[in-house]
Amino acid sequence: MVTQPQALSPETVIYPESDGQPMADNTQQFRWIVTLKENLEILFADQPNVFVAGDLLWYPEEGNNRLCQAPDAMVVFGRPKGDRRSYQQWKEDGIAPQVVFEILSPSNTGIEMTRKLLFYQQHGVEEYYQYDPDRNELVGSQRMEGSLSEIPEMQNWVSPCLGIRFEITADTLIIYTPQGEPFLTPVELAQQRDQARQQAAAAQQQAAAAQQQATAERQRADRLATRLRELGIDPESV
């Protein structure tokens, strides 16, 4: 007697938290992924229903744990912040990430990146950005009439969803916030914070010194007025 294996119900399917691949192949790729994710997190820090993640497995269909992708960074509007082991779309009101980023490394192949593009196109991504830091090449795609179409010119392109602007220089890519501030690495952010703290401390010291000087001058004027009165002179008449 031959028995047929029973199909697993969607509730019993296990969705792995890792695809077994490293987040990055080298320090440059890792720095870009972290910089993107952290700056996007900062950009939407005061918006509770914008979820930002990096290298998080996204499962678009319940019951299919083979259909997944882990964008280097992704932004989901309409979903609350919070930790997740994976992004299981059917548990997220069916909302797909609207914006995804991929940072290339020398090990990425054309076939691999084509598969990612097709995945993002099939599963509802609105904007897809792919940056190769070794070649300093940026490719963007935007959903038009149901499919992702390549953006003809990325220089100074402003993301419709995020409001960020892309500037390609001779050496690198610079991403600007809607307020015109460049994305910074975590080290640069820490240095900026320390500099702001030092400037605030210096300003406080200057204010304290000015207050001390004003107090000293007022005390000197009071002593002079007292001395004039002792001499029978009205200080107001001097």
Q: Overview of this structure, please?
A:
The protein is α+β, with helices and mostly antiparallel strands and 238 residues long. The protein folds into two domains: 10-184, tt1808, chain A; 189-237. Helices cover 32% and strands 18% of the residues. It contains three helices and ten strands. The chain has helices at residues 27-43, 110-122, 186-230, and strands spanning 50-53, 58-59, 73-77, 87-88, 99-103, 127-132, 137-144, 147-150, 165-168, 173-176. The strands form three sheets. A six-stranded mixed β-sheet has the order 1-3-5-6-7-8, with helices on both faces. A two-stranded parallel sheet has the order 2-4. A two-stranded antiparallel ribbon has the order 9-10. The longest helix is centred in the last third of the chain and has 45 residues, at 186-230. Residues 1-7 have low confidence and may be disordered.
Under the CATH scheme, the architecture of the largest domain is Alpha-Beta Complex
What fold name stands as the CATH topology of the largest domain? Answer: tt1808, chain A
Biggest β-sheet: strands ordered side by side in the sheet: 1-3-5-6-7-8
Total helical elements = 3
CATH class of the largest domain: Alpha Beta
* Order of helix and strand elements from N to C terminus: HEEEEEHEEEEEH
Secondary structure tally: strands = 10
Q: What is the domain tally?
A: 2
Biggest β-sheet: count, sense, barrel?
6 strands, mixed
Radius of gyration: 29 Å
Shape: elongated
CATH superfamily of the largest domain: tt1808, chain A
Coarse structural class: alpha+beta
